[in-house]
């Protein structure tokens, strides 16, 4: 029995989050089944990089945006899994020795430490491809447009472009607008895709996309500002990854540009922008509000 | 003026091939334009890896399959570019030090030699994403199905799975069926996608897909057998890549399993299978026949 369907009051946020996290875990588990005749190393590495960890921010945003347009979770599963698989592949490649050369991720050895560089490279490649297959397991009003949106979010004008900006700025001075551009592409583009694709799973009214894009932009930047703050304030134990590594690798951050207090204030300002963008939706935006608060007020 | 449109007899194959190669070059050039605000290194590396080289076998197959279903080249451009970008990205990642560690490709330094490993990794990632964006610039009867087909061809049950099989068999004994499975995935899956997607750009009659899948399978394997033969018989100068590297890296090949003469005979047998699969199409399969002959009888 779906408790939510018969409830007269919405689930508390923690219970909603947990139910969707469990749901996406099952969806990803099915989408990443072993393939007969294919080396288990590859599919194991894909599963290792994707399952059993992370806050699932992007899937949660997709489900929440779906609720806003009256799409039930079953109508959003494909989109939610697709954005998470793109995210997971980007972490695998980002951690490789030729990129960030990181050994710890979500409290576990990174994929290439566990499976070797070659298999990690292929697992990331295969995860990106699989994301586009999984996207199209969801019935979408405009499947071609959805494919383009995810591709643009992942490609040179999105996440990959942002990573190139990041890479080429290590150890160099960066203005605040340049830092925002980098994050808007590196993490913001996929967050935006998660929200817009989630909304596309339901019946989006005129103006919904523009308002959600504004929300996504503020939320995405806030997410990154908080990340930078936590990189300074957090510990490896609570973060599940190496703390202080931005400073150690001399990457420009909101904290290095603004200072800690101003970075925190900036996050709160972005939070207000995000809230304002959701105002037209009233109670239908409940989960998106809750996720924004959760992201911006988290301590890990 | 489109000379072909007014011609009463079809273009000779060499002229057709040249016109389609020029066409796909222009399509790829447009699809890989610089992105404002994105480091030129990234888009330059994507262009370097994709433009100005290669036989364009996959786009040619897509255009030829499109002709079979009455799709003009303009209706096939997106599909042709998408499969070529997937192919180009796979070469970039395949050449990386953690994979084949190759320094020469199409007579030029490999992408990571020219741009560094990190940018080459990102350029490959971005090319894969861009392929899915470009795919959906073509009007397809079933855009969701086309996206799934390309994704499956590139993913763990296709190219990436084949590369994992290849990687994990270096220096190990391999049976002929295992070698065929590896090639069916590593190169065959994308060749199949090029042909089936090209055919989907037009009006495919019942049974067309099954016959073309059979053609693709034989053609794809023949392509690989000939590659193995040329790796033994060719020189770096004529191949534009390092010759004899399969033997040097102790990879199983058709030549190492069958011997040179039997490998050549196997290629001819596959050629006959491919021809037989096209029989129902008569003259509409002219270009596919010509491509198969060209691939199997090439000396570089």
Structural features, described:
2 copies of one chain form a homodimer. With 300 residues, the first copy, chain A, is an all-alpha fold. Chain A has a single domain, classed as Farnesyl Diphosphate Synthase (Orthogonal Bundle). Chain A is 70% helix and 1% strand. Chain A is built from 16 helices and 2 strands. Chain A has helices at 3-6, 13-31, 40-50, 57-68, 73-94, 111-115, 117-135, 143-154, 159-169, 176-200, 208-233, 236-239, 245-248, 254-258, 260-278, 286-296; strands spanning 104-105, 108-109. Chain A has a two-stranded antiparallel sheet. In chain A, helix 11 (208-233) packs antiparallel against helix 15. The radius of gyration of chain A is 18 Å and the shape is globular. The model of chain A has no long low-confidence stretch (mean pLDDT 91). Chains A and B meet through helix 3, helix 5, helix 7, helix 8 and helix 9 of A and helix 3, helix 5, helix 7, helix 8 and helix 9 of B.
């Amino acid at each position: 029995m779906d408790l939510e369907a018969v409830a007269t009051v919405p689930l508390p946020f923690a219970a909603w989050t947990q139910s969707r996290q469990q749901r996406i875990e099952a969806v990803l588990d099915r989408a990443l089944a072993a393939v007969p005749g294919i080396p288990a190393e590859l599919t194991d590495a894909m599963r290792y990089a994707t399952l059993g960890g992370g806050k699932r921010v992007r899937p949660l945003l997709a489900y929440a945006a779906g609720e806003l347009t009256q799409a039930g979770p079953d109508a959003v599963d494909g989109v939610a899994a697709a954005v998470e698989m793109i995210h997971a592949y980007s972490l695998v490649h980002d951690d490789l020795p030729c990129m960030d050369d990181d050994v710890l991720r979500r409290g576990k050895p990174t994929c290439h430490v566990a499976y070797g560089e070659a298999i990690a490279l292929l697992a990331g490649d295969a995860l990106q491809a699989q994301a586009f297959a999984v996207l199209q397991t969801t019935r979408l009003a405009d499947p071609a447009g959805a494919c383009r949106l995810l591709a643009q979010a992942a490609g040179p004008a999105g996440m990959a472009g942002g990573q190139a900006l990041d890479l080429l700025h290590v150890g160099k001075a960066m203005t605040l607008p340049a830092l925002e551009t980098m994050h808007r592409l590196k993490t913001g583009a996929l967050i935006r895709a998660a929200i817009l694709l989630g909304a596309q799973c339901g019946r989006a009214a005129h103006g919904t996309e523009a308002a959600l894009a504004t929300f996504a932009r503020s939320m995405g930047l806030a997410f990154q500002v908080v990340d930078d703050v936590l990189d300074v304030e957090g510990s490896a134990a609570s973060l599940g990854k190496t703390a202080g590594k931005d400073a150690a690798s001399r990457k420009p951050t909101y904290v290095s540009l603004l200072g800690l207090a101003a970075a925190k204030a900036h996050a709160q300002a972005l939070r207000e922008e995000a809230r304002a963008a959701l105002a037209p939706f009233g109670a239908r935006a409940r989960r998106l509000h809750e996720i924004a608060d959760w992201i911006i007020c988290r301590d890990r």
